[in-house]
Amino acid sequence: MSAFTAIGEEREIDREEFTPGVEPQPTWCPGCGDFGVLKALKQAMPEVGRTPDETMLVTGIGCSGKLSSYFESYGYHSIHGRSLPIARAAKLANPGLEVIAAGGDGDGYGIGGNHFMHTARENHDITYIVFNNEIFGLTKGQTSPTSPKGHKSKTQPHGSAKDPVRPLSLSLASGASYIARTAAVNPQQAKEILVEAMEHDGFAHVDFLTQCPTWNKDAGEYVPYTDVQESDEFDFDITDRREAADMMYETESRLWEGEVLTGRFYHDAERPSYSEEKQAIGEMPEEPVAERYFDEDAEWERTADELIDRHT
Amino acid sequence: MTDDTLMWRIAGGSGDGIDSTSQNFARALMRAGLDVFTHRHYPSRIRGGHTYVEVRASDTPVRSRGDGFNFLLALGDSFARNPQDDAYYGNEELKPLTEQLDDLNEGGVIVYDTGQLDEEEIAQTDLDERAEENDWHVYPMDLRNLAREHGRDVMRNTAGVGVTAALVDMDVSYFKDLVREAMSGDVMEANLEILDAAYERAQELDQTHDLTVPSGSHDGEQALMTGSNAIAYGALDAGCRFISGYPMTPWTDVFTIMAQNLPKFGGVSEQVEDEIAAAALAIGASHAGVKAMSGSSGGGFALMSEPLGLAEMTETPVVLVEAMRAGPSTGMPTKSEQADLDFVLYTSQGDSCRVVFAPANVTEAYEQTRAAFRIAYEYQLPAIVLYDQKLGGEMRNVSADFFDREPNPSLGSTLTEEELAEAAHHESGKFRRFRHDGEDGVSPRSIPGQKGGRFLATGNESNEVGHICEDPDNRVAQMDRRMRKLDAIRTDLDEEESSHQTYHGPTGAEYGILTFGSQQDTVFEAVDRLNELGHDVKALGVSDLMPYPEMEVTAFLESVEECLVVEMNASGQFRGLTQRELGRFGPKLSSLLKYDGEPFEPGEIVDGFEASVDGDQPSAGNLKYVPAAGD
Ligand SMILES: Cc1ncc(C[n+]2csc(CCOP(=O)(O)OP(=O)(O)O)c2C)c(N)n1
Ligand code: SF4
Ligand SMILES: [Mg+2]
Question: How much is the ipTM here?
Fold first, then answer.
C-alpha cells in the first residue's frame, strides 16, 4: 500500500478546502491581479480532482511568491527564481504529486530564466504559472524583463533601452509542450486554462497577466482583451509549431502596443514527459522513489554486493 | 630522505593512458600482497601537458605519498606541442622525463621510451651528468617498437609495465590476470605478448641497480579505492537515491560514479543546467521524501550558497559534497588545496546552521559520508562532506570486508501517515511542522502526499505551521531551536562509539601537530619519523569542523606545550577556526602552510616541524612557517 494515501484519493473536493485557515486573507494591494490567479487556481483544483494533501505548490520570491501562503496545500515558498528546480525534483521523487510552480516575471524570466529554459526543454510534467505584471512588484516597481522598451522606473530613469523578453516564444523555443496566456481580469478563461495545464502531461507554461495597480499603472488592467480562439481575426493551429510561433510573436508585439491577446498558443499532447523519457532508458524506476523509504519490506542494494568486486 | 618501499612514477602526456596504467599497476601490487597508495598529478588539459601518477607499495601499511620516488617510467608526451625555444613551455615532449628528475631519489631507476623520445635531444639535457651525480640507473628502451611488434603503438604503456616488472623482480602474472579480466580477443592477446616480450627484453639488460619490490601478504581480500569511490559508496549505502549536479573538477568523479550506479540501485541522477539548480533539485527531492545529495567544487559551490541557506531555514535535510581545488576563482583546477574551509563553513546569509565533515582517507570518507546522511536526516539540516583533489583522486587498498555492512535507508525524523494522525495540528488542519519545543531542536517532518501533513516551508522566518511570521518572540524561539540542533549533534557525535577525530603518536608527547582532512595520514607518517629521530610529538587529525569537537581538541591542546597546525592554504584557516572556536591557545599554535598545489610530503612536515622548533623557516619545498601569536 502507498505511504501517501492522499495521492489518487477519490472524493468530492470543495474549492474552499484550498483556503488556508491560518491565513485566509491575502495581503496583496486592493485591485492586484494576483487575487485573480489565486481564485482561478482554487476553482481549477476540484475540476482537476486533486486535494490539498496531494498538491505541492512551489513559489519563488515576489508579491506573486506569496501565493503559497494563501493557497492551502503542501507549500514551498523558496528563493528568488528557483521554484522550478525544486518543483521538478519533487515530481521526480514522487510523480504521483500534483506539482505546480509559480512566481513573477522577474522571478521566472529574469533571475530564474535559465531554469525556465531547461525545465521547458526537459518537459517535466508540472504546471508553471508566471504572474506577469511587467514589473518588479515586491521591490517597489523597478523595470522587469517584460517591461516594455522605454519603461521608466527609479532604476531606469531614462526609460529602459531594452526590448522586453518574449515569454511565449521563449517557452516554445525552449520546448514547453503546453503554452497559454491568460489574464486576471478573465477568471473563467483563466480557470479553464489552469485546468488544461494541470491535466496536460508535460511542461505547461501559463503566462498570467496580473495587473499591478500600485507600481505599474501604465500597463492598465489588461482590458479589453481578446481570446484568440474566439476571435475571427486569428486562425491558427495550436498543434502546429510554426503557426504557434507566428501567433506568439504577434501577441507579444501587440501587448507592447497595448493590445491584450490571450488564449491557448501551443499544445503538443504527443511528446512524452521527462519521467516517461527517463523511465524508457532505464534511468528512473517505475515505483516512485519516495515510496521505497516507507516500505519496510523493501530490499536495499548494498555496495558490498554490487560494486566492491570490481576493486579487488 | 629515501624509503625502502617501491615508489614507481609513470609520467607521460595526459591522454597517454597514465591513469589506467597506474591503476592496473597498483592493483597488481595489491594482489601480490602489498599495501599501495597512489598520488596523481595532472594538468587542466585533455591532451598533452605533463602528467604523472606515483604508486607507492610496501609490505607495511602506506598511507601517504613518499618523499620523492625511486623508479621512473617516462613515456614522453605524445600530444606535446611542437618544441619552440621561445615559448614558455619549451620542449613538452621531454617533460615527462626531465621534469621528474628533481624528485628522483639517489640510486633511482629510469626507464624511458626511446620510441617516443629523441635520444639526441636527451643527450642535450643534463640527464647523464645528474645520473652520475645521483647514482641513477638509466635504461633507455624502445617501448613503442616493442608494442608495435606485437600490437599497436599505444600499447607501449604495457611494454613499460613489463619492463618495470622485470627490473624490480616482480611476477608478471598479476599483470596478465588484469589484462585477461579487462580485455578480450586480439587486444588481449597483443597485450599479453607485449608483457612477455618486454619482460624478457628487460631481463637481458645489464642491470646495475638494486631496487626490488618487497613481498608481502594480506589477511583478507583487498579493494583498491579512491576517496571519490568511498564517498559515493558511502552515499549509496546511506540510502541516497538522488543526485543532481553539474560537472566541475574534481567533484565530477563522485558525480560520475553516482550517475553510473544509481539506476541499478533504483535511484535517479540528474545533470542539470547549473549548480544553483543542482542544489535546489536535491532540496526538492529531499523535501518530497528521498535521500538526496548534490555537490561541486569551489566555483560551483559558490552558486549553491543561496539554496544552502534555504535548506537551513526550511530545515530540509540534504548532503552536499565539496571537492576543494586550488583557488581563488578558477585557480588551479587539477591541483590540491584546503582553502575553501571558511567559505564552506559560512557561505550564505545569516548564522550558519550546518554540519561539515572533512574525512582524512578512504575509510573515513565512506564512514563520514554515511554519518553526514544520518545527521542531515535526523536533524534536518544540510551536511557537507569537505574533501579535496588529493583525497578524491588517490587510491588505497582497503580490506574488502570493510564495506560489508547494512544500508541505512532511514529518513530520520520523518513521520509516517499513522504517526502524523497522532501528531499535533493547528486548528485549521495544518500540521505543526516547526514546533518550538523539542529538546534537541528537531521537530519531525511530514512528506508531501501524506494525508494530514500539509505545511508551508519557507525561506522566510515562520511560525509553527510554516507561515511567514516576524513576531520577535517567535523569531527567537525558532532561531534558538534551529541553533540548538548543533549542540545536540555535538553531543550525538561525542557519544558515538568511534570519534571522527584520529590520534597518532605517544599520548604523553610534549609537542603536538594538529591538522584536518586529507593531510592527516601524511602528518601521521611524519610523526612516526619524528619520533624515530628523537622528537617527542603526537598528532590529532580533525574531521568534525562544524559543530567543532571542542572537548577533544581542547584536551589535546592542553596536553602539549606547543602545537604546529598543518594545512594546505595560505591564511591558516583551520588554525583560525580552532582559535575562534576554543577562544584560547593562541600563543601555543603556530602554522605550517603549503599552497603550491601539491600536497605535503611526509618529509616536508618533518623538516617543517624541525625548523619550527627553532622558529625558523623550513628550507625544503614551498613551505611557510607562521609563528604563534605573541611569538
Ligand atoms: C537573489 C535575490 N535577489 C533579489 C531579491 C529581491 N527581490 C525580491 S522580489 C524581486 C522581484 C520581484 O519581481 P517579480 O519576480 O516580477 O515578482 P512580483 O513581485 O512582481 O510578483 C526582487 C528583485 C531577492 N529576494 N533575492
Ligand atoms: S505591489 Fe503590485 S503586484 Fe504587489 S501586491 Fe501590490 S499590486 Fe500586487
Ligand atoms: Mg512582476
Answer: 0.98
